[in-house]
Amino acid sequence: xxxxxxxxxxxxxxxxxxxxxxxxxxxxxxxxxxxxxxxxxxxxxxxxxxxxxxxxxxxxxxxxxxxxxxxxxxxxxxxxxxxxxxxxxxxxxxxxxxxxxxxxxxxxxxxxxxxxxxxxxxxxxxxxxxxxxxxxxxxxxxxxxxxxxxxxxxxxxxxxxxxxxxxxxxxxxxxxxxxxxxxxxxxxxxxxxxxxxxxxxxxxxxxxxxxxxxxxxxxxxxxxxxxxxxxxxxxxxxxxxxxxxxxxxxxxxxxxxxxxxxxxxxxxxxxxxxxxxxxxxxxxxxxxxxxxxxxxxxxxxxxxxxxxxxxxxxxxxxxxxxxxxxxxxxxxxxxxx
Length: 337
What we know:
Blueprint: E1 11-19, H1 30-37, H2 42-53, E2 59-62, H3 64-71, H4 75-88, E3 91-95, E4 101-106, H5 118-121, H6 123-142, H7 148-159, H8 165-177, H9 183-195, H10 201-221, H11 231-242, H12 248-262, H13 267-279, H14 288-308, H15 325-336
Parallel strand pairs: 1-4
Antiparallel strand pairs: 1-2, 3-4
Helix pairs in contact: 2-4, 3-4, 4-6, 6-7, 6-8, 10-12, 12-13
């Protein structure tokens, strides 16, 4: 059985629980069920209930590894759950000089009207702990220590964009899984979510699912399979889907025309088609046949004019010559004999 976290240790081998309830029975407040349980992650609820289970005595010891093994989750999940309930005001975490959690107090912030809410007392400390947690899991995803610029970006997500730790965790996970460990790229994604008023992980997942579906359809039209889109390709697709006033059907049609014309994916060629349609205010697929007919007619007229007009190529300044085929044949015969 594990005794402590091997990386980014947040717990000592065990921590002390202090029961703030007045009796020694396992007790779940109605407040918890009515206000907290429904919106919490299921793993978080299990951790909280396990803590209550171990409060049969006024004080007891419990290690993070024991909790993880009992619930069949990771110690990282235990950490996330404890810090979540601290943010909600149901726990008070006690840390030593090194910032490691060495104890906690369990109990609702609304036990009585004279008790100040824990989350009000702990606001500054919680924010510091949130940043510490985001730095820890971001370093795990990146596989290296973060630079000051990286940490500043994480602070920006927390303080300015007001992202939760869970949302930042998903943000980092999503970008890294799509081969983007550049914090500037991650920040662009975060700003896009903020503009869409995305505040929860489910909302972010819904947005990225739609984003991925559109990109998948475009790549599929190009015959690109079995690999992720390159950064430059993503920039093109983002511009087409976010900035151009064209439906996905028109974008796919432009991709199909590109493949039919040059037989290979070419994002620049497709963009030229789309820009032309935007300039001509094309709105639907049904408008394309008439547009194609006008284009074909225009090209035909230009070809007629070019065939009738005199050549202006100065290199063609010699006079035309005419040859008698029979006379040439006769001369060749005489020379041979």
